[in-house]
Design brief:
This protein is of the alpha/beta class. It has a single domain, classed as Rossmann fold. Helix content is about 40%, strand content about 20%. It is built from six helices and seven strands, in the order E-H-E-E-H-E-H-E-H-E-H-H-E. The protein has helices at about 10-20, 50-55, 85-110, 130-150, 170-175, 185-200; strands at about 1-5, 25-30, 40-45, 60-65, 115-120, 155-165, 210. The chain has a seven-stranded parallel β-sheet, sandwiched between helices. Helix 3 (about 85-110) links the parallel strand 4 (about 60-65) and strand 5. Helix 2 (about 50-55) runs parallel beside helix 3 and helix 3 (about 85-110) runs parallel beside helix 4. The chain is globular.
């Protein structure tokens, strides 16, 4: 099985690539920069529809897509923020999901089925102050995945989202040194859930938003 991992060079992406490659999957990574260990890497700006379509079309025997692309930024409350900041979060988190689905879903359906997995966030269900754009965007990711499920389930394409709490990465440890990490989740744990969702073991799971919260 060939799995396309979008955003496969960061902390979470690297863990997903290792997990999938170690489980015998052939992995192709789409990313704007960097190289992924253990996988073919294709440079593509996933905010660009044409570039995304071209990159996806070049993947042979595509059977699953994992979208890890997104962005996060804290800010002031809505009354003190700007439309530009709000739109930036929507664009970074929703446009790559749409572009990937637009390019990949017909291929998956024509190939007899497959899996499409996006990363949402716990914050989409439990919003916090200073992140209105981010939590709105991640809520949109969940709804978008459910819409894909409604459109492509009959074609055999399973569409799901995983909702991590704070991911235990070096960057997050540096940014939040005094935080209680009991509710944080390791990239490797998220990767295991993603592997399950693209595997035949999850053939009856579609349209789900799967919480990956750690102990918190």
């Amino acid at each position: 099985m060939t799995v396309l991992v979008a955003g496969g060079t960061g902390a979470l992406g690297s863990a997903v690539v290792r997990e999938l490659a170690g489980s015998g999957y052939e992995v192709t990574v789409l990313d704007r920069q960097g190289e992924a260990d253990g996988a073919t890497t294709v440079r593509a700006d996933l905010l660009d529809p044409a570039a995304t379509t071209e990159a996806v079309a070049g993947v042979d025997r595509l059977e699953a897509v994992v979208n890890l692309v997104g962005g996060f930024a804290m800010g002031p409350k809505v009354g003190d923020s700007s439309l530009e900041d709000f739109e930036k979060m929507l664009r970074l988190n929703l446009v790559p999901a749409f572009n990937l689905a637009h390019a990949a879903m017909p291929l998956l359906a024509e190939g007899g089925g497959g899996a499409f997995v996006c990363v949402g966030a716990r914050a989409a269900l439990e919003p916090f102050s200073g992140a209105a754009g981010y939590v709105t965007a991640k809520s949109g990711v969940i709804t978008f995945v459910k819409a894909l499920d409604a459109e492509y389930r009959d074609a055999g394409v399973r569409c799901n989202a995983v909702l991590p709490s704070i991911i235990d990465t070096p960057a997050n440890r540096e940014a939040m040194p005094s935080s209680d990490r009991a509710g944080w989740v390791a990239p490797e744990q998220i990767a295991q859930v993603i592997r399950f969702l693209i595997s035949p073991d999850s053939e009856v799971v579609s349209g789900a938003a799967v919480p990956v919260y750690g102990r918190g």
